[in-house]
Design a protein that fits this description.
This protein has about 170 residues and is mainly α. It has a single domain (about 30-155), classed as Orthogonal Bundle (Arc Repressor Mutant, subunit A), CATH 1.10.10. Helices cover about 60% and strands about 10% of the residues. It has a three-stranded antiparallel sheet with strand order 1-3-2. A hairpin with a 6-residue loop joins β2 (about 95-100) and β3 (about 105-115). α2 (about 50-60) packs across α5 (about 115-140) and α3 (about 65-75) crosses α4 (about 80-90). The chain starts with 15 loop residues before the first helix and ends in a 10-residue tail after the last helix.
Length: about 170
Amino acid sequence: MNLAETGDGPTKRIDEDHQQEWIAFVKVLLVLPGVLEAQLLRDCDLTLLGYMILARLADTPNETLRMSQIAMMANGSLPRTSQAISRLEDRGWVRRTVISGRGQGRRFTTASLTEAGRAHLARATPEHTALVHRLVIEPAGDQFSALGSVAQHIVEALGLPAGPGPN
């Protein structure tokens, strides 16, 4: 099932055994992104999406991705992704380049991590990683790998790409 599909069968209710777990999960979905973003904004003037874009660029061989790949990674539209990249570009952390297709007349835009972006990511990562450890990894303890596996199954059920996407 992807986000646009609905089930054809009767609606299943969440049973009492799962109600508390579901409520806790929804709280995490609603609160955790804001807490992570608040830390990033306070400490390094960076949104969570901006951080994820810089980190993804840093993980690619040429520190460059097509805008469409970034949008897919961020599960966002190209306009939303373009706005995020514009903010990063205004700060000198990312550089956009328009690439003309070879013989096909196609054009696409790439975003590349700059030296300043790499340095800013390096400054932002220790505090952000410490918060992720404190709020997610440590509470999950030995179940963190299972949590990641469940998250991957949910990503697949939503019809989203399972991995970070092609480089």
